[in-house]
Amino acid sequence: MGANEHGVCIGNEAVWGREEIGDDEALLGMDLVRLGLERADTAEKALTVIVDLLEKYGQGGNCMESHMAFTYHNSFLIADRKEAWVLETSGKYWAAEKVEGGVRNISNQLSITTKIDREHPELREYAKSKGWWDGEKEFDFAATYSYVNTARMTTSRGRYCEGYKLLNKHKGSITSEIMMEILRDKESGINMEGGFMTTGSMVSVLPQEPSLPCIHFFTGTPDPERSVFKPFIFVPNITPLLKTSSPTFGPDDPVKKQPRFQTKPDRRHELYKKHASAAVVMETTKGKGKKMLEQMQKLEKQKISEMESILQNRCLDINQAVNLFSQCVEEELKIYT
């Protein structure tokens, strides 16, 4: 997931369906997120960038630094100040839905049904050639390209359905704090634990009025329930984010060598490491852990309040915004030490 200086935000999920997934090296969903954000200044342009790259280079390859192959197709939630799109893929084929209102989420399944606003030119013909669609009944992308029962999609228990219910409960009154609360929800499976723990979380406020800044909150650490959402605003000459930047290994990076993934370097940044140590304290030392968590929550509430003030008063101090995220990281690190 990520955002760019134009207020374009993209989130990405792994999806599976009827179409086989290639092990050959191609573009990962994460690559497509970065390229979309690098090259587009609106949500729909980002969608176009992604589908053009998909057509030219395909998607696939191992997404883990491991001998164990883990491959998937991708879905994307793409938004800017004015509009939002859901883009879902199956191999080189894809469908896109423009979000017209209400709430919309994605998870680890295809979710675009009959409302298709853009699509791969051969999407339907390919489905017919594979015997997935008879060409007569209404075309339902998720039902055709996967095994999802789309009639029960928002009622059956599953991560997509639970996310939809949590969003729908707050429809029309979702604040950044409510969004953070939803991302912290473990019972629903939104906040994942175990081998596929939620690695990082992001909440963005995209004002429709162009004179107001887009405000992005990032944890930069796993498990949002025990993390601080820190504000970030794109401004010129921003302070380098050294303590949340993963180390680089240049040409010696094992990901750049053939055969791939022979060794696994430590890519954790400083905040990630300190947070991991703090998480152990929170789990094992009840009193100290509770106090630490209270301090983290206090810091986050303070930063949310400051950001709300910026939007309400329409007053952004550029000199403060330059250090906004890095300063908050320093304050978080003090709590851990």
Automatic annotation (TrEMBL):
Name listed for the protein in its UniProt record: Secernin 3
An MF annotation (GO) of this entry: cysteine-type exopeptidase activity
Pfam families: Peptidase_C69
Domain of life: Eukaryota
InterPro entries: Peptidase_C69
Family recorded in the similarity comment: Belongs to the peptidase C69 family. Secernin subfamily.
GO BP of this protein: proteolysis
